[in-house]
Predict the structure.
Amino acid sequence: MADTSAQRSAEFWIVSHFLPDHFYGTSFSSKKLSLKWGGQFAFDAVSQDGKIVGLISTSAALTASGKQAMAKFQKLKADALYLLNINSAEQRLMIFTEISMLEHFEKEKMGGRFPPEIMFLHAPLPVDIHSMVLAARHIASTETSPKSRG
């Protein structure tokens, strides 16, 4: 099973440093919120007053083999459905640590293939945390890649 501690560290830094700086001292935390259809969903970043709600992606738009990260794209699109179906939010955010993923979704939005009500933010990680995320991504890629046959 993949170690997600690097991604959790990145999410913690975004919630505790990046977003409060971006939104002038507003505090954020992860939190479950009620959905319009009655269930709940755990969001990565919710402002103290519940008016700003966000999801964080540490994924890149390309896989280790250089192909488009289709599974990641689909997961983020599914997550967007939850963002669109919460009652309390005035601002809905998708926060990307990787510029490649941000650019992919900006193209999707410009082409009318992504909801315009969701705002995108780029949250460049500090070098040490980004290095941990890259290392964890490499390990996960190695674990899931087909083994070469000799």
